[in-house]
Design goal:
It contains no helices and 11 strands. By secondary structure, the protein is mostly beta strands.
Length: 119
């Protein structure tokens, strides 16, 4: 059974930094991509950053220049280095891993880790 486990959230002042980590257990796949999503209070979950299996990365405009994603090219591990944090970065951060099989799409989510940025 595949499990996605996030860690590294916490409380930080505006301008501070946090590093989130995600590890996928129980999978022998190389995912199409692994990604971080952010869900602010009362809002929908949104893509923050992702790493594609070849190693390329994508970022939401709101985090470009502040956040950096790294990992092992969508195999088991994904990190998110968050610098110059802002109050609007507050919310739950979820790790996501997705792979397309021959007939199905397999998508896995972690339980989320809370990030709170105080002003």
């Amino acid at each position: 059974q595949v499990q996605v486990v996030e860690s590294g959230g916490g409380l930080v002042q505006a301008g501070g930094s946090l590093r989130l980590s995600c590890v996928v257990f129980g999978s022998t796949l190389t995912f199409d991509y692994m990604a971080w999503y952010h869900q602010a209070p009362g809002k929908q979950r949104e893509l923050v950053a992702r790493m594609i299996s070849g190693g390329s990365t994508n970022y939401a405009d709101s985090v470009k220049g502040r956040f950096t994603v790294s990992g092992d090219n969508a195999k088991t591990t994904l990190h998110l280095q968050m610098n110059n944090l802002k109050p609007e970065d507050t919310g739950v951060y979820y790790c996501n891993a997705k792979v397309s099989g021959l007939y199905d799409v397999y998508e896995y989510w972690g339980q989320g880790t809370q990030v709170t940025v105080s002003s």
